[in-house]
Write a structure and sequence with these properties.
Length: 296
């Protein structure tokens, strides 16, 4: 249902019959909460998040479009997360015909101001839904609606902040042995070691050509987040650690211990659409009990 959230910003609350829920702000098309059927919050949202345009909300799932990071002339991560989206009154059909119980369809189109900084017309449709099992699904459909015949090229990420008990007891599985660009070393290319990734300092890596499924294991909670993706070949892993955390005004000094970003992305090979063409990028998040014990 639609209501007023922080600072009177419009938000939509999705509720699944078995108790799971999600919240999305029209500002940024930004998912800020995803709770399981026990009411546990599964996404990280900074206690210092500034819900005040034009600043992006710190946490949840920022939408990075039409530019990931500083890979281009736009502001960091593009501008989709800094704009007011609207309810899509002409949403795409549901694949199975029958819509899930809990969903919302949002749309973003460029304003005249946007066209001055990125001279392309597009329709960005974002569907957010909860499955009966409480999985959170995001589907992005981006269509080139240029009338001048011009194609456009973009990079993209679901900049997902997972809530974790203790970053020093988290492992990520699925990225072993892959190549990555290290944002802490001028985006130079390296190859990841052979076993699960663990965390003891700042990490900011763009893994290339990643599998459709990545697992994030939280030892204390005995819980595994499973991220499934389609149309998003790369995955960004980021934890700012202590020094960077202190340098961010909208991020608590200790909060790096309780979050990890794993971001389904299309970065290495930017996506080009000709007028009329549409791209689709999906991610599906689930949180499942896991028997993981650290040191395995
Ligand atoms: O997640 C990767 C990253 O590009 C990091 O380099 C860091 O800048 C992070 O995004 C957060 O960016 P933001 O603009 O939201 O502060």
């Amino acid at each position: 249902e639609r209501s007023k959230g922080i600072n009177g910003l419009d938000k939509i609350v999705l509720r699944e019959v078995r108790g799971s829920s999600a919240e999305v702000y029209l500002y940024g098309g930004h998912v800020t909460s995803w709770k399981n059927d026990h009411g546990e919050e599964l996404l990280f949202l900074s206690s210092k998040a500034i819900f005040k345009p034009p600043k992006a909300i710190r946490g949840g799932i920022p939408i990075c479009f039409p530019q990931f990071s500083n890979l281009g002339s736009l502001e960091q991560h593009g501008f989709a997360r800094n704009r007011f989206w609207t309810i899509d009154t002409d949403p795409p059909p549901f694949p199975t015909g029958t819509p899930p119980k809990a969903f919302v369809d949002l749309i973003l189109k460029p304003t005249d101001e946007d066209l001055k900084i990125w001279s392309h017309s597009f329709e960005f449709r974002l569907r957010i839904s909860l499955s009966p099992a409480g999985d959170l699904m995001l589907t992005s459909r981006i269509r080139n609606t240029n009338s001048d015949g011009k194609p456009f090229t973009f990079t993209f990420a679901y900049h997902t902040y997972f809530s974790v008990s203790d970053i020093s007891e988290v492992r990520v599985e699925g990225l072993e042995t892959l190549d990555y660009l290290d944002n802490l070393q001028n985006k130079e290319r390296f190859t990841e070691q052979g076993d699960a990734i663990t965390f003891e300092s700042e990490v900011d890596k763009i893994y290339l050509g990643t599998p459709t499924k990545i697992a994030i294991l939280d030892h204390e909670k005995k819980r595994t987040f499973v991220l499934r993706k389609d149309g998003l070949p790369d995955a960004v892993v980021w934890n700012p650690w202590e020094k960077k955390a202190k340098a961010m005004a909208d991020f608590g000094d200790e909060e790096y211990k309780h979050m990890l970003c794993v971001e389904a992305a299309a970065v290495e090979k930017p996506i080009t659409l000709r007028p009329g063409e549409e791209w689709r990028g999906r991610q599906e998040l689930s949180a499942v009990p896991s028997s993981y014990c650290s040191g395995q």
